[in-house]
Design a protein that fits this description.
- With 459 residues, the chain is α+β, with helices and mostly antiparallel strands.
- The chain has helices spanning 5-15, 24-29, 50-63, 115-123, 141-147, 154-157, 192-196, 230-242, 255-264, 285-301, 313-329, 349-363, 389-408, 427-430, 433-446, and strands spanning 20-21, 43-45, 67-70, 87-90, 97-101, 106-109, 127-128, 164-170, 176-180, 205-212, 214-215, 219-227, 249-254, 275-283, 306-309, 336-343, 366-372, 377-384.
- It has a seven-stranded antiparallel beta sheet with strand order 15-12-14-13-17-18-16, sandwiched between helices. Strands 5-6-10-8-9 form a five-stranded antiparallel beta sheet. A four-stranded mixed beta sheet has the order 1-2-4-3, with helices on one face.
- The relative contact order is 0.12.
Length: 459
């Protein structure tokens, strides 16, 4: 669609001249996300407060133009791009940490706060916010809420939804509601907070967030275990949990991931390792030391060829730099990437890893897998040239086969990236028709005119 000149003038009156643009160079900056798909919006808006968001949505309902909420655009499924035109509502001016309550272990924050900045702020007060997506240095809390982000620490601490107590939200109608509580317990009325977290900006625009915090663990110990066989590494993941050890993180990297990481960051990781596990434990110093030594012994017993415990905080941080460098470094294998984040029950990880290896052999495509194996969440990537039709056809068939197998194992086709536009074609594989009808009814109830982030989740 094309935004009317009269509508643009009304938006300018709401936001002020400096906080709205339809200049091409500005539109291009907000036309894409991490999918590299591009859809040019009609205008970009930078609201500063909840009232402005409300007025924009009221106008959108009246004049029928799409509104697409956006943080910093790090999403992997196209959730923040203007697939049907309209205006992109950039929430980065909502960037205040309102308060950190050390007595009650809660914080009130705005959605434009960068997740990594929030981590540092609470840790200075001896507190801990566990959700830590790999994009934490450049993703926002609002974006994390929209996608229900997870990250490596989910195995022990859970995902974003487990820490959200309450929200201030502007509905598509422009109404402002407050959901949830400021306390750990609260069961009055329906749990709209859980409904809105993970709704990908299709039900409302989050303008304030209340999260619960934990005491900062006294000590963190980090370790790597290299394996010369991917099946042994996958079996080790299941066995570690079966032994009653719940690490803070249990990450998996295949050989291609290791090579990618080494191309970006200087490291001693063994190039010939077929798989690597990155493990962390936390707690009191004695407890953490005992746990990491037990993990070392267990991994050696399970066939690890090389096990190293980080001796300093600097060494540990470098290991995480390596892990977080993998995704952006993948482009050494090809100009384009298909990125999926499937999840299976932990004891099915060996089956999933074997399936990926089989698909790699069958298709001849470059496939790279890594991720949060401790909670069954594997990031599966196909590197290709999308101008090559044969490669694209092979990749599409491989993705479909992997999704079918994931569901057969009792898993899900998206663990933390959401549905957006890239997973929408596969939604009916996982969601049965009756459930899907009720999801669409919820969307219609919240957004009867379909103005908020249209074209996402449902095709």
């Amino acid at each position: 669609m094309t935004l009317k000149s009269s509508t643009y003038r009304k938006l300018k009156n709401i936001l002020g001249k400096a906080n709205i643009s339809k200049e091409k160079e500005n539109l291009v900056c907000y036309a894409y996300d991490a999918t590299r798909k591009t859809f040019l919006p009609d205008a970009v808006l930078f609201p500063a407060n909840t009232k402005q968001v409300s007025l924009v949505l009221k106008l959108a309902n009246k004049e029928a133009f799409p509104v697409i909420p956006r943080g910093l655009g790090s999403g992997m499924t196209g959730g923040s791009i203007a697939v049907r035109g309209g205006v992109v509502l950039v929430m980065t001016r909502f960037n205040r940490i309102i308060d950190i309550d050390t007595n009650n272990l809660i914080a009130n924050v705005q959605p434009g706060v960068v997740t990594g900045h929030f981590h540092k702020a609470v840790e200075k007060k001896g507190l801990f916010y566990p959700p830590d997506p790999s994009s934490s240095e450049f993703s926002t809390l609002g974006g994390n809420m929209a996608e229900c982000a997870g990250g490596p620490r989910a195995i022990k601490y859970g995902t974003t939804r487990d820490y959200v107590l309450g929200l201030e939200v502007v509905l598509p109608s422009g109404e402002i509601i407050n959901t949830g509580v400021q306390t750990i317990k609260g069961v009055v009325g329906y749990d709209l907070t859980r409904l809105l977290v993970g709704s990908e900006g299709t039900l409302g625009v989050i303008t304030r967030i209340t999260v619960r915090l934990l005491p900062l663990p006294e000590t963190v110990k980090t370790m790597t275990a290299a394996f010369d066989n991917i099946t042994r590494a996958a079996n080790a993941v299941s066995e570690i949990i079966r032994q009653g050890i719940i690490p803070r993180t249990l990450e998996y990297m295949d050989n291609a991931s290791i090579k990618c990481a080494r191309s970006k960051i200087k490291t001693s990781l063994p190039l010939d390792a077929q798989a690597l596990l990155l493990l962390e434990v936390d707690g009191e110093a004695k407890e953490a030391k005992k746990s990491i030594e037990r993990l070392k012994e267990l991994c050696i017993g399970l066939g690890a060829t090389d096990v190293e415990i980080a001796e300093t905080n600097e060494q540990a941080q470098n290991l995480w730099k390596i892990r977080k460098a993998v995704s952006p470094a993948l482009f050494k294998y090809g100009p384009d990437k298909i990125n999926e984040d499937i999840v299976v029950p932990r004891d099915k990880i060996p089956d999933l890893v074997k399936k990926i290896d089989d698909l790699r052999s069958e298709t001849g495509l470059t496939m790279v897998s890594f991720g949060h194996a401790g909670d069954g969440n594997i990031h599966f990537n196909i590197m290709l040239d999308k101008k090559n039709k044969k490669e694209v056809e092979k990749a599409d068939k491989a993705i479909e086969a992997l999704f079918d197998y994931t569901l057969e194992l009792g898993g899900t086709i998206s663990g933390e990236h959401g549905v957006g536009i890239t997973k929408a074609p596969y939604l009916t594989k996982e969601i049965d028709p009756s459930t899907l009808i009720w999801m669409k009814k919820i969307k219609d109830l919240f957004d009867p005119n379909g103005i908020l982030n249209p074209g996402k989740i449902f095709m």
